[in-house]
């Protein structure tokens, strides 16, 4: 019996490493390609995560760079403070989004990316989600610096909580008339629709597996942490790899690993090993990156597993049913851009979180309100009250920032979280009596 | 006797509350935290234990009915005052030892002789006049040794400095260093001995008729008996900002948010919303019908508008913290101050004073400014329903309470019941003690580290 258990555990350990190792390889390979882009003649497109058109970029043989991801990586590598200081020295106010300042600072300091290699300058700045006003200003700044073309895809806000045919057609028209021609111009070749369709079909495969991974958290104990662990899971699909064979392999492996953990009743792997699930939490808002592990430990130490989070859906709400559809390539890209989380109106966001709280059987939900991001933070207190009213599940609220370490008050956040978890504990005990 | 202990290690003061097994408060103690939580915790707990003895004495006298109700009350009041006097005298003695020790140090050199004699004289005067702090009806700024001894010593030092006998700064520096050590000194005097001395002082004041020898004998017997009944602390919970610095096991630590909510609800059971303004944070909470917190908001990243803000303003004006509120109440003209930043508020205060505005009016504006900030947290935590309780050190400030009541009436209607208990500073420790009692009843009690 003992032997079997050990063997099973050993197997899971090995397979756990497999997906992680693959992701690491994929990233290293991508940054290597970027480093040598000029020699190999590859064109480089800077673009953002929400509404990214990765399949289109790849089908045209170009390489994407995602400035927000570089910024968050700088935060995790404890470099963001100096980059932000650099940007502030250049005149950017303290109130500017810290992703922007971190990115500008990194650029000023030589544009060395997260893997330690130099990033190439952009040949094109592709703004495919305009719901974030900061994105537009960000690219205006980069345009000044690099003097390269900017292409903007205007994405209407889901003010009424639905995507209408007119909205979809409006995007398709822009893609056909403006975006694709401009991209072809930079790429120096025509878009091969079959190439795009092939990638879209691969995207859908990976998306199926990712949804299975998210939904594994319905199991008790949840085999994954859908926020802190989740940000690793979204790495490939929200960045350069959606629509690639690599991503399909990665998500298949990840799904297998998670299924195995579920079978052995294991909880998620945290910085302190596997935890015993005591609380099931839904989280709204991006994590803090400068103190990512400290923040995670404040949860794992208390046995709090995040079963679902909205941040891990910023690059696609696949669990609501959306899949890239290769039979309608431009329409599907339009739906993807329109459907990103921050493009949803507040009632839809509340409905989504309510759905997570109920379907994942959460004990509580927590909002991390970040100073930098208006797209996320606006209306969060209203969201909190409304969700408490609808679900009866207690909400918690902490405030921090994306990558400015000055806005992470460790003692204060820890104090709030401890209070919050003790409150949940007391509620559980009361319920049990 | 069995009891449970709750300790609230706040940023400014440390509080302890003792409950008996039925959950009645039998003692509470408070002391300066002075960034030494281990000592502060021990001192507050000692004080609470002393208070618990007095509760036990009261119960014993009521049970045995050797004295009438009025006489019992008088005796206990005098006994308590005399006990405090004995403690104060013991601390003064320790202060003398500390001063001598410091004076023996090399840094005093040639100033030793000229400082030593006046310091001894002043101390002797402090001892001589000590009883004046404890006569019936005496007004004390606070019961903290630092405040009592400080006031008496400074008066003596100032007089001698005026007369040219001492260098004021030198003798005050000596006092400042010595008192710190006395504050962190754990008195090693038997409770029973001090109480017995206190009784010797109090008895003739209360039982004046020399013919009641038997009564005096009975009183002494009761006091001696109660003084030595063992008090067993069978469970404890720590809370407050210092909780992490003490070697409390995780299970014996509760968040002060939960403790304040529980404590406030215990005292005012109709309470559903609580505002606590402490030294370094402001908390707005909602509690359910059992006192459990269901939602809360706290100040974040910036502690402007907390108790320390008022402390800073008091320092700027060179007045006592407790004088701020009464002074602000005398305001006759509405002045607006928008800055909640403590440092800027200080600057604004000086500027307005220089422009000739009245101190009272400016202070009233500063109070409005911090309470407005707290009201925003209250709104964020879910607003106010039917009954509201104000806790924390700042609720002792009458201007803060007045402004808060006005704002609550304005925003939530004039039918809201607003509570502020004179012991509201103990709410966190009370809540902690209630959690300790839960733990005891559930068989998971933790004991205080020895």
SSE arrangement:
The complex is a heterodimer of chains A (433) and B (450).
Chain A: H1 2-35, H2 37-40, E1 44-47, H3 54-59, E2 63-65, H4 67-76, H5 80-89, H6 98-108, E3 124-127, H7 133-146, E4 150-152, H8 165-187, H9 193-215, H10 230-238, H11 245-264, E5 269-270, E6 273-274, E7 279-284, H12 292-300, E8 304-309, H13 329-338, H14 346-359, E9 364-370, H15 374-377, H16 380-391, E10 395-400, H17 410-432
Parallel strand pairs in A: 1-2, 1-3, 3-4, 7-8, 7-9, 9-10
Antiparallel strand pairs in A: 5-6
Helix pairs in contact in A: 1-11, 4-6, 5-6, 8-13, 9-10, 9-11, 12-17, 14-16
Chain B: E1 2-9, E2 13-20, E3 25-32, H1 37-64, H2 69-103, H3 112-129, H4 145-162, H5 168-183, H6 191-206, H7 213-228, E4 232-239, H8 256-267, E5 273-277, E6 282-287, E7 293-298, H9 307-317, H10 321-329, H11 342-354, H12 359-381, E8 387-391, H13 398-412, E9 417-419, H14 427-441
CATH topology type of the largest domain in chain B = Nucleotidyltransferase, domain 5
Provide the low-confidence segments of chain A as ranges.
1-15
CATH architectural label of the largest domain in chain A:
3-Layer(aba) Sandwich
Write out the strand line-up for the largest beta sheet of chain B, numbering strands in chain order.
7-6-5-8-9
Q: What class do helices, strands and sheet pairing of chain B give?
A: alpha/beta
What is the beta-strand fraction of chain B?
A: 5-15%
Helix and strand sequence of chain B: EEEHHHHHHHEHEEEHHHHEHEH
Question: What's the count of strands of chain B?
Answer: 9
Radius of gyration of chain A: 21 Å
Give the N-to-C terminal Cα separation of chain A: 37 Å
> Which regions of chain B contain 5 or more consecutive residues with pLDDT less than 50?
none
Kindly report how far apart the N and C termini of chain B lie.
18 Å
């Amino acid at each position: 019996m003992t032997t079997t258990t050990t063997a099973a555990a050993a197997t899971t350990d090995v397979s756990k490493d497999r997906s992680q190792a693959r992701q690491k390889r994929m990233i290293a390979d991508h940054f290597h390609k970027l480093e040598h882009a000029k020699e190999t003649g590859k064109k480089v497109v800077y673009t953002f995560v929400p509404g990214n058109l990765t399949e289109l970029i790849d089908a045209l043989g170009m390489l994407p760079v995602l400035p927000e991801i570089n910024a968050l990586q700088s935060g995790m590598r404890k470099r963001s403070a100096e980059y932000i200081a650099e940007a502030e020295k250049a005149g950017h106010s303290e109130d500017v989004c810290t992703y922007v300042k971190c990115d500008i600072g990194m650029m000023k300091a030589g544009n060395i990316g997260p893997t330690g290699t130099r990033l190439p300058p952009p040949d094109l700045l592709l703004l495919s989600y305009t719901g974030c006003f900061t994105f537009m200003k960000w690219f205006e700044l980069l345009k000044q610096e690099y003097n390269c073309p900017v292409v903007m895809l205007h994405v209407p806000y889901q003010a009424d909580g639905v995507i209408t045919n007119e909205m979809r057609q409006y995007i398709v028209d822009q893609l056909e008339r403006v975006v694709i021609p401009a991209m072809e111009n930079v790429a120096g070749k025509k878009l091969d629709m079959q190439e795009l369709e092939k990638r879209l079909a691969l995207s859908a495969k990976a998306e199926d597996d990712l949804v299975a991974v998210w939904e594994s958290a319905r199991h008790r104990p949840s085999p994954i942490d859908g926020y802190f662990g989740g940000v690793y899971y979204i790495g490939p699909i929200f960045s350069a790899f959606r629509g690639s064979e690599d991503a399909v392999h990665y998500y298949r492996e990840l799904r297998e690993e998670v299924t195995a953990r579920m079978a052995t009743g294991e909880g998620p792997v945290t910085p302190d090993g596997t935890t015993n699930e005591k609380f099931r939490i839904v989280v709204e808002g991006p994590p803090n990156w400068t103190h990512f592990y400290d923040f995670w430990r404040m949860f794992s130490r208390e046995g709090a597993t995040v079963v679902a989070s909205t941040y891990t859906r910023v690059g696609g709400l696949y669990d609501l049913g959306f899949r890239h559809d290769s039979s309608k390539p431009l329409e599907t890209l339009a739906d993807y851009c329109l459907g990103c989380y921050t493009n949803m109106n507040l009632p839809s966001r509340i409905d989504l979180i309510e759905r997570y709280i109920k379907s994942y059987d959460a004990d509580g939900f927590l909002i991390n309100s970040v100073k930098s991001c208006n797209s996320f933070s606006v209306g969060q207190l209203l969201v909190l009250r409304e969700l408490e009213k609808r679900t009866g599940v207690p909400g918690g609220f902490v405030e921090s920032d994306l990558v400015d370490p000055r806005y992470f008050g460790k003692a204060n956040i820890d104090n709030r979280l401890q209070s919050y978890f003790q409150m949940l504990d007391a509620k559980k005990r009361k319920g049990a009596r | 006797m069995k009891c449970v202990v709750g300790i609230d290690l706040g940023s400014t003061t440390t509080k302890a509350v003792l409950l008996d097994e039925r959950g009645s408060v039998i003692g509470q103690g408070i002391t300066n935290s002075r960034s030494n939580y281990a000592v502060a915790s021990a001192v507050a707990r000692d004080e609470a234990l002393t208070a618990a003895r007095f509760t036990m004495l009261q119960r014993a006298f009521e049970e045995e009915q050797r004295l009438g109700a009025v006489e019992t009350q008088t005796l206990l009041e005098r006994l308590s005052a005399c006990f405090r006097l004995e403690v104060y005298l013991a601390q003064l003695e320790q202060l003398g030892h500390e001063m001598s020790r410091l004076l023996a140090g090399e840094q005093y050199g040639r100033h030793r002789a000229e400082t030593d004699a006046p310091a001894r004289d002043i101390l002797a005067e402090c001892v001589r006049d000590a009883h004046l702090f404890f006569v019936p009806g005496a007004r004390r700024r606070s019961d903290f040794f630092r405040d009592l001894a400080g006031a008496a010593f400074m008066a003596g030092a100032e007089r001698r400095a005026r007369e040219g006998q001492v260098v004021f700064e030198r003798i005050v520096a000596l006092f400042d260093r010595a008192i710190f050590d006395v504050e962190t000194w754990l008195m090693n005097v038997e409770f029973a001995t001090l109480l017995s001395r206190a009784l010797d002082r109090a008895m003739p004041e209360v039982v004046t008729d020399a013919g009641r020898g038997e009564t005096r004998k009975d009183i002494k017997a009761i006091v001696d008996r109660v003084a030595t009944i063992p008090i067993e602390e069978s469970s404890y919970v720590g809370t407050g900002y210092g909780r992490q610095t003490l070697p409390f096991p995780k299970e014996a630590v509760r968040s002060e948010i939960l403790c304040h909510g529980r404590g406030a609800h215990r005292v005012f059971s109709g309470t559903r919303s609580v505002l606590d303004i402490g030294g370094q944070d402001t908390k707005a909470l909602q509690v359910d019908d059992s006192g459990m917190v269901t939602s809360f908001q706290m100040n974040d990243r910036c502690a402007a508008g907390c108790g320390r803000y008022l402390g800073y303003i008091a320092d700027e004006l060179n007045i006592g913290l407790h004088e701020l509120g009464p002074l602000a109440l005398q305001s006759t003209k509405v002045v607006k101050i928008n800055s909640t930043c403590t440092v800027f508020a200080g600057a604004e205060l000086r500027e307005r004073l220089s422009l000739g505005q009245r101190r009272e009016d400016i202070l009233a504006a500063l109070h409005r400014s911090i309470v407005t900030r707290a009201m925003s947290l209250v709104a964020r935590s879910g607003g106010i329903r039917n009954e509201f309780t104000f806790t924390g050190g700042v609720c002792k400030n009458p201007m803060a309470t007045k402004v808060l009541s006005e704002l609550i009436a304005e925003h939530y209607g004039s039918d809201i019941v607003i509570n502020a208990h004179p012991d509201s500073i103990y709410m966190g420790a009370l809540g902690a003690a209630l959690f300790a009692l839960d733990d005891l009843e559930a068989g998971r009690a933790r004991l205080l580290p020895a």
